[in-house]
Amino acid sequence: MNQDSLLGLLAKGGLLMWPIGLCSIIALAIIIERLWSLRLENMAPAHLVADVWSRIKNNQFDRVQLDVLRSESPLGRILAVGLLNAKHGRAIMKESIEEIATHEVHRLQRYLNVLGTIAGISPLLGLLGTVLGMIHVFSAIVVHGNNSPEALAAGIAEALICTAAGLFVAIPSLFFHRFLLGRVDEITVSMEQEAIRLVDALQGSREVSTLTL
Question: Is residue 10 part of a domain?
Answer without folding.
Answer: no
